[in-house]
Amino acid sequence: MRTKPTDHIFCAMDTETTGTNPLAGDRIIEVAMVPIYKGKILYRGIYHSLVNPQIRVPATVEKVHGIGNEQLRDAPSMDEVFEKIRSYVSRSIMIFHRAEFDLTFLDFTAKEIGTFLPTVRFLDTYEIAELLFKERKSLSWLAKRYDLPTPTHRALDDAIVTAKIFLRMVRDLEMDVIELVKTWSGEEW
Questions:
Q1: What is the rounded distance in angstroms from the CA atom of residue 59 to the CA atom of residue 67?
Q2: Distance (Å, whole) CA 79 – CA 94
Q3: Which domains does the chain have, with CATH numbers?
Q4: What is d(CA 73, CA 51) in angstroms, rounded to the nearest whole number?
Q5: Of 108, 47, 100, nearest in space to 76 by CA
Q6: What is the CA 159 to chain-centroid distance, rounded?
């Protein structure tokens, strides 16, 4: 009997950053987590926050997501936000689009504030696209394919779109989603 994917708590997550490389000084400036349970997005459980990176956002980056230095001045620091992230990560199977990007920033951030990121069980819609469409696809391509709103490069909007894409992909998959998680993580459940 197939395990229903809805028997587990999933959580779509997205971040926005000041650039693409935390080793070069780029930092997270926005985070959103969208829980999914029993095949439905739990809108009341969504967490979203701007994050003060304590560095300036380059104008070229601000043009991408529209988040500027003025908006971030009074935002909480990552020290204040990280425990919420840890709580969601430790209780959920995380859903990302291009997980390596977000996980690299989260791991770097954890080390920078003197803590650690718990073990992250996750699925990546970018990778799942290869199973379904024979090649990896962008978030915009997947949103269009599933007739969803175009991603905006804002963490909350993109996390909601990622959650909806995941739910559609689960419907289309012939593989048990928990087997998929095991395959990705190498863990026994």
A1: 10
A2: 21
A3: 6-182 (3.30.420.10)
A4: 9
A5: 47
A6: 6
CB 71 within 8 A of CB 50: yes
What sign results for the dihedral spanned by CA atoms 88, 124, 48, 43?
negative
| Rounded to 5°, angle at Cα 168 from 32 and 35 | 30
136-182 tens-digit pLDDT:
999 999 999 999 999 999 999 999 999 999 999 988 987 677 777 77
Hey, which residues does 148 pair with through a beta bridge? none
> How far apart are the C-alpha atoms of 8 and 101, rounded to whole Å?
24
Length of the chain: 189
Q: Are strands 93-96 and 122-124 parallel, antiparallel or unpaired?
A: parallel
Q: Assess contact for 52 and 27: CB atoms under 8 A.
A: no
- 38 confidence band (pLDDT: 50, 70, 90): confident
